[in-house]
Amino acid sequence: MPEFEQRKRKTMSRQELYDEYLSGESGSPKKAAEKKSQSKKPAKGNGGHRRENPHVSEEAKKRQMELRQKQTAAKESKTYTGKTSGKSPKSRSDSYSSHRSSKTASRTSSDSQRTSAGGRGYSKAGRSHKNQKKKAGRYTLYYVLIGILAVAALTVLSTTVLFNIGVFVVSGETVYSDEEIIAACGIAKGENLLRINASRAEDKIVSELVYIESAKIHRGFPNRLTISVEAAKPAVAFAYGGKYYVISENKRLLEISDKPLNCPVVKGVQIILQPKEEKKTETAEGDVTTDISVPTGEEGITLENGAQEIGVGAVLGDDTEGRIRLALSIAKYMAESGLEKSYEMNIADILGIKIDYGGHIRIDLGTTASLEDKIYNASRIIEEDVAENENCTLNLTNPNRGVKRPVYENGDNGTAAEKPEATEATEDTQTQPPEAEP
């Protein structure tokens, strides 16, 4: 039989082969078609099974059986690739059966592994996973120990060998040199950046160098120490006992001078240490302690930060009327209003505050109420209505209305002196501002 005929038969079903066989026996296409239709119809009364054709001879039945056996063998000999040419039916069937047996063996082995794992509670794979977890736990412990040792070693090195100070940097404009500021901080080269006490060094700079208002220390790794300082500026100078006590905005005594500095002068403040009352208290253990922080109410200023006497660097408290705080407030409002000429303020009477501005203008502020508004109105009147070197008095006791007078007031009673005639005015007869009373 030709090869193409063999391939054709392999693709045909049993019924098609049977029909072809019958058509070849009968030799008539018509009879073959009738037999084909009869074979497709189920037999009645026999459960749908096909009846045997009584007209087929014994020899045809034998041929039919042989044909069926050949078809079964041909199906079993097929491979997965479909390439069967050049191989005998026996070898193809053997390879197919060996492939099926290997698959069955692998499936059986996997089933047996699952059964053993379910019955015993563990397997070889389970034991391997457990061992891996144990190893991972050991490695984690090793890493933790190594990390602790590394941190300890780094800490020891950083506080002994590393980060030692080699460079000092001072920033900020002050009256002191960089060497003076570095010496005042108490930190030397070679000290460790991590072991220095920065806050204590800052306090030492401020306490020893009075013209420094504040100091900040910054660490710059690996070996730099930066000191940033802010200069203390004179705010006012209190005139008392022939001396001028210059203080900063933070009420720190910067200097005691025989002449006023370039700052406002304040009169009417008693720069004497205010007496304090000793108050004794007894503790539960029977110890007696003395508290001298209670003022008696007499005139004079107090001291802060534990100072016992008035000296350079001491921080002034205030008197019973709060005159130091009042003087600093007036100086602040005058600077904000643009009144930059030299002036003196007399605050002996806090109900009648007076300012001698520029040597030719008397500003009467009255009480401490609305000081900021009063000083602002005074600056506006001086800028708009007061000529250069004009002698006048500005009455600003009412913060909403300022009154300008062409002459100074004569005394503290509020009466105004007559302005002398210009023709008769001489150097001796011209009205001059009275001296500010201490």
What are the salient characteristics of this protein?
438 residues; alpha/beta; Ubiquitin-like (UB roll); 9-stranded mixed β-sheet; 3-stranded mixed β-sheet; 39% helix; elongated
Provide structural commentary.
With 438 residues, the protein is an alpha/beta fold. It folds into three domains: 3-76; 167-231, Roll (Ubiquitin-like (UB roll)); 235-405, no CATH class. Helix content is 39%, strand content 19%. It is built from ten helices and 16 strands. It has helices spanning 3-11, 14-26, 29-40, 58-76, 89-120, 124-160, 178-185, 198-208, 323-336, 371-385, and strands at residues 167-171, 212-220, 224-231, 234-240, 243-248, 253-257, 265-267, 276-282, 288-295, 303-304, 315-316, 343-346, 353-357, 361-366, 392-395, 403-405. The strands form four sheets. A nine-stranded mixed sheet has the order 6-5-4-7-12-13-14-15-16. It has a three-stranded mixed sheet with strand order 1-3-2, covered by helices on one side. A two-stranded antiparallel ribbon has the order 8-9. The chain is elongated. The N and C termini lie far apart (147 Å). The model is unreliable at 43-49, 83-93, 117-122 and 411-438 (pLDDT under 50).
